[in-house]
Amino acid sequence: MERGGLLAVCVLCWSCAVCVVTAIQRADMFPYGTLSGDLILAEGDDETSRVLSLPRALYFYDSPFSQLYVATNGIISAQDLPMEKQYVDDGFPTDFPVVAPFLADIDTSGGRGQIYYRVTETPSVLNRVAQEVHRGFPDAKFTPTHAVVATWENVAAYEEQTRTTGPSNQVNTFQAVIGYDETDSYALFLYPEGGLNFFGTRPKESYNVEIELPARVGFSRGEITYLIFSRTEGPHYSVTSNEQSVKNLYQVGNTGIPGVWLFHTGNRYSFDNIVPASVGGLLATPLPGGHGLSSDTTTPEYAEFEEYPDNTFDPDNQEEDDDYPLTGGNPEFQPVPAGGDHSESPQPASPDAPSLPSEDSGHRGAYGSEDVPLTSEPAEPAERQYAPPNPPQTVPEGRAQQRQEQQPQVVDVYPPHRNEPPLSPGGHVVSVDEDDVDFDTGVIQYTTENKETCARFQQQCSQNAFCSDYATGFCCHCQPGFYGNGRHCLPEGAPQRVSGKVSGTVTVGSTPVPLNNIDLHAYVVVGDGRAYTAISEVPDPVGWALMPVAPIGELFGWLFALELPNSQAGFKVTGAEFTRRAEVIFYPGNQRLSIIQTGRGLDDHNHLTVDTVINGNVPFLPPGAEVTMDPFKETYQYYPSVVTSTSVREFSVVSADRGSESFSFQLKQNITYRGCRHDNRAAAPETLQITMERVFVMYVKEERILRYAITNKISPVGGESNRPTGPELVNPCYAGNHDCDTTAQCIPLEGQAFQCQCATGYRGDGRNCYDIDECAEGLSSCGAHAQCMNLPGSHRCQCHSGFEFGYDGRTCVDMDECSSSPCHINARCINGLGSFQCQCHPGFYGDGFFCSEQQGHTKSQCEQHRDSLQSGVEQDGRPSPGAFIPQCDSDGRYRPLQCHGSTGHCWCVDSRGQERAGTRTPPGTPPKDCDRPDEPERPKTHCEHHRDSVQTTSPEGYPIVGAYVPQCDANGQYTSQQCHGSSGHCWCVDGRGQERPGTRTPPGTPPKDCDRPDEPQRPKTYCEHHRDSVQTTSPEGYPLLGAFAPECDANGEYVPLQCHSSTGYCWCVDSRGQERAGTRTQPGTTAADCDKPDEPERPKTHCEHHRDSVQTTSPEGYPIVGAYVPQCDANGQYKPLQCHISSRDCWCVDSRGQERAGTRTPPGVQTTDCDKPERPKTQCEHHRDSVQTTGPEGYPVVGAYVPQCDANGQYTPLQCHGSSGHCWCVDRRGQERAGTRTSPGAPPTDCDRPDEPERHKTHCEVHRDSVQTTSPEGYPIPGVFVPQCDANGQYISQQCHGSSGHCWCVDSRGQERPGTRTPPGTPPKDCDRPDEPQRPKTHCEHHRDSVQTTSPEGYPLLGAFAPECDANGEYVPLQCHSSTGYCWCVDSRGQERAGTRTQPGTTAADCDKPDEPERPKTHCEHHRDSVQTTSPEGYPIVGAHVPQCSADGQYKPLQCHGSSGHCWCVDSRGQERPGTRTPPGTPPKDCDRPDEPERPKTHCEHHRERAQATSSEGYPVIGAYVPQCDANGQYLPLQCHSSSGHCWCVDGRGQERPGTRTPPGTAPKDCDRPERPKTHCEQRRDSGQTTSPEGYPIVGSFVPQCDAEGQYLPRQCHGSSGHCWCVDSLGQERAGTRTPPGTPSVDCDRPVPVAPTQRPESVCERWRTTLIEHYGGKPDPTQYVPQCEPDGQFSPVQCYGETTYCWCVDQDGREVPGTRSHDVVKPACLPSVAPPTMRPLPRPDVTPPTNTEVTLLYAQGQKIGALPLNGTRLDAARSKTLLTLHGSIVVGIAYDCKENRVYWTDLSARTINRALMVPGAEPEILINTNLVSPEGLAVDVTRRLMFWVDSNPDVIETANLDSSGRRTLFDTDLVNPRAIIVVSSTGTLFWTDWNREAPKIESSSVDGQNRRVVVSDGIGLPNALTYDSSSGQICWADAGTKRLECVSPDGSGRRVIHPSLNYPFSMVYYRNHFYYTDWRRDGVIAVSKDSSQFTDEYLPDQRSHLYGIAIATSQCLPGEI
């Protein structure tokens, strides 16, 4: 087409009196604001958001970025921004990555606008982004996974304070949206109509010149690094070029919608520059007056337009300076509906002002209102309108409804060329009939219908809500059983949990304390309005001070308050998305605290997420103070979308220092939310009253937890106070004192009646509710390809692997992996359902991810395997369904990870393709890390053995259909529900994997709830109880062999024939399961006919009695190992040959079953012929056979001594005791030969050696040897007294009893010397002191001394009564028995005076009172006195019951047994009243109360009575566990074992709650407190069975030890075996750490030593390691890391990361000139050798600056720079490089002013160096050994010492300046030492340690003495440190708190110099200025100490990080010497 034709088209289009495409409105922007989850940028002129971490990396250009920053000045950046003066007044490009929708000097100070930002995965937002991209880039395959939305709303331009005029009333609104997926990113810029009112800003340094810089719009990649530390300008793209182009931003667009701009901004694989969208759009422009179309001109003909067949623009003909270059190739005019009113006269237009804003387009669709996000079906937009001549400034609220009937025409056109003349009036409008056109463009549907309906927007409602249409739109309403605002619904009655983070800064007094995202958790019992809030990790001063700020937790009380009639809690109004802003003003101090709480919605568990930001001041409260707040009421005012309240609270503070004080605060708050305006049926209340009945606040210092507990009720104003005051008139539902379950709703009925109804998702009677497992019961809403996850009260759906949620957020759709081109370029991608496959093209081989051309390639085993299976593919090239195709790598080897495309299972294989055991994972779970070596595994459980034994695939790799594979949980146990994958049947199994009867369900029916206990259809029978009590599997799931489990029939009765599955024995039983005598048959013989009636039996023989009396199973049914069962023949006689089934010993017996001597044979030896006659037994054999080695029941008797006889039956000379280990020699009669006994472990005596002649035994030795220490059976006799003799055999003067502890003195005959016996624990008598003459003994003393307190063998006799004598030897009138506790009076002869005996615990008789005549004894007294309580010898008889009589001699109603502790009631005759007996520890019955009918016993009471607390004789059974029940018979929550001391929590059935058991001596668990989920260690610990079912400990089981957090302790030890070993975080044993008992254990905190390498680390390897550490361990793809050969030498080719920017190097790593290449093909480099006689690089000579007095020296990577000072100003013009150090990383730097030397640490070379600062000087290496990461460095010029820190081994070292005298100062209590300085004048050393857990600044003397902490509070990352010589203070710059602070060395006088630095690294002080290196600015920054302002800045030309900084002067400064 000629240019004239093109112009005609333009004239035609511009002459139309129609609105072409109206600009978007604000309501058309993407949803924004706090209700949309946005964060708000702080107000200010140059603010940058906190880092916005992206869930997935975003590709901008071709670089990935994982974090973004939003800035005030209209930009989004991928790195933290520099100060604005470096970019805001400059043009494009910037030197950092920027997305700029409107880059200008913007200022939001003083509330002038807000800036919102967020990253979102909301389907409606992602769907809308996807539709815009598909419209602008039709060929793009783009499905966004995330979007970043940033909105600048009503922001103003910066204006100088001195100006009197300016754009103060002009504000702008615009938005940027970045959508991205795994490979691509796109950006949308949106400029709404009327949104741009200023188009540029004035430079701050304009020096009163009236200039204005237009805003910049576009993209900049920023500087790109090359040559390690060099940078170059990256690509960029500008959208605007001048002010006019900025003005037109909202009038045109490249998407077909004016004001909407779309760009392709990045790709993972290749991306050169920004690509704009290919669709155009222009805002309608009114035409000159008088030429508009009349109202009836609605349908022009097509022919007038068809005259121009080529209606396209040619982009090549555009001028280069066009503001809006057209990128579309074929923009067509789109026909649209006709109609509308055109009577208004359009206004003239010109290119300079192409349009006026329209009144209101009513435009929706992709630009709908904020609360209407798009779904996969786009919304229908409102009709387009003509622009009126005078558009109003405001838009009516009901604009959509006012324009329902208008139907204007719309046509899309592109802007004309700038230099073409204006279009002339006239022409025609192109239109078509509405019925003939499909208006669905894929993004916007043009329709006359604009109402929001449920049909299109129902997905905005909660899944537990329904949608209702109204006249103006739709609203969501919660379904019955749920409550909320319809968008968020929760089950009624269920408790609610809240979680979130708390951040901000709280200033306590004058100390600011940051709160860095600490945890907040709340728990609300909705049924009674109790809200508990806990904030953890709160620092001390803030914790105490925030106690009065209960409004933090009051929010949750208001949301879920207990509702009184005619009221509703807050959640029903706001739902889960809201913003609450509160201000607290404290009196009398006027401190102000701001609280912002943002509801983020409900998480996956239906828990509310609320983030809290607290900023401001609070009054100081003394530590330990208590705060009390009285109940109060508060009125809430309700408005549309906002709730407000104001109140004044009073609180009291009680502290030890101040006593009681009263304070108050005022609370102002508003809560904004998103309401639904369409439903006007029920107006919201205007006011409601919240009543907070109980407020409890507390700060727990030890746990650093701040707690609020508040009870809340909500009612109409005055409703609470107007209710009746009588408590009997308040319904419990409103009073909150009902007994409904916490997961139930209380429903009030008439009067005080109420009903408990379980919450939705729970079932039960309302007082006990249990969660419904919707997943197990088939009640879930999950569709295909989704997995149901049960939650308390609800469930959620999770897509299987290979699937993702569709746009509706509910349906799982296949993930098209092929869309991201995962396969090789020479391979095809085949997408499957939930998976994909890569297949090489014909002629290529490989795994599809890498394909190589076949050139005589020999196939590997994997390839042959793969190709043999692929040969059976179908015609379309797809493999046969179900076949497993192995995956091979590029070398033809099996890939370590193999996955089955059909089943989704994955597993690891070895090099032969064999599956590695234990690596298989099911679909939907993360696969194993196959590169990780196998760790030692626990033994497989029964389930895992079963599962792994099932063959699921054929040898050819096809799945075997129909095989049932059991499912095991993470611990290897059977999952309670099993399903057959093929048949669809499901059933429940027990712990052994056995199917539970009656639980199988066919496919299509909901499966059983296997976690729910079986509902007994009938009570269990005795047989079933017996059977189910038998433990047949171990805790690991293995079957326990030998356990007998009885068989029961269908009715639960014993099957008549019972057989033991392990032994093979069978027998008949009666109806009680008792064995019928004579029916037992051996294995292999015919079983008895149990239906045959018993025949009269002959009497049992002795053998049969013996056999049947042996107990072979325990009462629980377990086999008793080791029991000997005699074998009888058919006649019941003993078989001659008997064998022990356990020990396998055999022997012959006589007719009485007695063993025939000499016939016993051990296992494996030929048995004796029992029919052969035997020789007579010898004495030894008689002795041996007489020893009883087994008890009457057949059990072995431990400890018996059995003599050893030789083959002839004679005693072997050496005899040993098998249990005690003693050995001795015997003579031929078996008598022990004196002096031959040896202890266990000592070498035995040589019994063949003849005895040496001995001296005769002394009396003491004869006495000692005569004591019998073992019983005749060989058992040791405990407690026997053995006298002690000295070396000469004489009695030792002091004798002591080893058992009782008594000691006494003896004479030479061994007789006890009277008065010398002392009890245990008292000092013994001095037996060498001579006796004093004594008076003759009195009768009492004779009596006392005659009492035998020890047996003849020396044992103490317990309970003997010894009378008490006074000092004169006379009887004490009152005598008491020390054992029984009885007391009585005696006369002078010691005879008991009748009637004076009193029981223990009662008042003793007055023995000085004369006797009174006695009345006759009553029946009770006769009974009492007849009980024999002492033996004839005077010993007490333990266990006898002595009745208690009253003073009148009658039986006391309550009798108690003194030994057992049982109590009971008796009648007047002393007979026990039934049902009154109580066990020990429980309150006794009230015996004065008449008997009442008793309630049935509870389970706990039955359990308690079954426990054998006493034996049949009434004696207590020690060690038995007796459960404790409360007054109602229910189990007490805390149970304790009285013998072992263990305590644990139980549930309502008495079952132990896992993880609650505590050993004796530790505090028991709080059983009423909910527990956190168990860790892996705790689950393993608690699953170990440590006690038997009876409560006795099981010896030998290993129980892992966990720390307080539930993590494995690094060192684990086995309590029984004594072995110890180290474990990792998973509890797995670390190889090589196990130590046997008795050896020192390994230090588990030290790393496992690694064998040293065979060669030292090369320069290349050392440099590589250092750079990787420098990059933080993760270098970017563009950062340089040296490439080294296997031998450590430099690789010939070196490249920047993964780029193609490469060059050649020689063997020393030096670049070969002229070899750099940017091509895809790397340069051809050959290894070279440096010439031996010359240095390839320039010598690293020193080049100091000239004519400078003071110079700043700074370290910058491979150089040291010099920056002179001119006064205190930075003289950038004279800066230069002092020293170039190739391959180094200079970090620490110091200066010696005496010798003019510079010292530095080299992180790369790991050295400390120095050089003279004179021209031509060369560096000198001082230290190059034992340095790992040398950083900070300091020089003491006075003492000629240097000091440095090494941050890897965490040490501080020192040496002389010539490197001699090196020593370590400190190597403990250091974590990350960084900076170090020395104050020479005071000899003091200071250093920083930025341990993130506990940062600090310390000091010491230069010799390492007097170490102390200077600062430890309020610091984060103290990088820089310097000394202010003028004030004598230490100053530091903190990269964490961003503050520059100073403090005196004693810790006083701390002050902040500057509050907001960027990222300081190192710092020096000079003349009231601080100079520091900054990593954010990559420069040197100057700060004035006096003004606290930045005064200067120096940015080197070469941009890279600056490290250390020092000051060099021509002469030493004061303080340096």
- Percent range for β-strand residues: 25-35%
Coarse shape: globular
Distance between the termini: 88 Å
Low-confidence region ranges: 1-20, 281-449, 724-728, 873-879, 1728-1738
Helical content band:
under 10%
Rg value: 47 Å
The average pLDDT value, as a whole number, equals 79
Structural class: mainly beta
Number of strands: 96
* Strands in their spatial order, largest beta sheet: 25-26-27-37-36-33-34-35-29-30-31
**What is the count of helical runs?**
22
**Largest β sheet strand count, sense and barrel closure:** 11 strands, mixed, barrel
Structure report:
- The protein is mainly beta and 2017 residues long.
- Helices cover 8% and strands 25% of the residues.
- It is built from 22 helices and 96 strands.
- The strands form 31 sheets. An eleven-stranded mixed beta barrel has the order 25-26-27-37-36-33-34-35-29-30-31.
- A hairpin with a 3-residue loop joins strand 3 and strand 4 (75-77).
- The longest helix is centred in the N-terminal third of the chain and has 14 residues, at 123-136.
- It is globular, with a radius of gyration of 47 Å.
- The two termini are 88 Å apart.
- The model is unreliable at 1-20, 281-449, 724-728, 873-879 and 1728-1738 (pLDDT under 50).
Q: What's the helix and strand layout?
A:
Elements: H1 3-15, E1 39-40, E2 52-60, E3 63-71, E4 75-77, E5 98-103, E6 106-107, E7 114-120, H2 123-136, E8 146-157, E9 171-180, E10 184-190, E11 200-201, E12 213-214, E13 216-220, E14 223-226, E15 230-233, E16 236-238, H3 243-247, E17 252-253, E18 260-267, E19 275-276, E20 281-282, H4 303-306, H5 399-402, H6 454-457, E21 465-469, E22 474-478, E23 482-484, E24 489-491, E25 496-508, E26 511-525, E27 530-535, H7 540-545, H8 551-559, E28 562-563, H9 571-574, E29 577-587, E30 592-602, E31 608-618, E32 626-629, E33 632-639, E34 642-655, E35 659-673, E36 687-700, E37 705-715, H10 719-722, H11 732-735, E38 744-748, E39 754-758, E40 762-764, E41 769-771, E42 786-791, E43 794-799, E44 803-805, E45 812-814, E46 827-832, E47 835-840, E48 844-846, E49 851-853, H12 861-870, E50 897-899, E51 906-908, H13 942-949, E52 977-979, E53 986-988, H14 1022-1029, E54 1057-1059, E55 1066-1068, H15 1102-1109, E56 1137-1139, E57 1146-1148, H16 1179-1186, E58 1214-1216, E59 1223-1225, H17 1259-1266, E60 1294-1296, E61 1303-1305, H18 1339-1346, E62 1374-1376, ...
Parallel strand pairs: 25-31, 28-37
Antiparallel strand pairs: 1-7, 2-3, 3-4, 4-5, 5-13, 6-8, 7-8, 8-9, 9-10, 10-18, 11-12, 13-16, 14-15, 17-20, 18-19, 21-22, 23-24, 25-26, 26-27, 27-37, 29-30, 29-35, 30-31, 32-34, 33-34, 33-36, 34-35, 36-37, 38-39, 40-41, 42-43, 44-45, 46-47, 48-49, 50-51, 52-53, 54-55, 56-57, 58-59, 60-61, ...
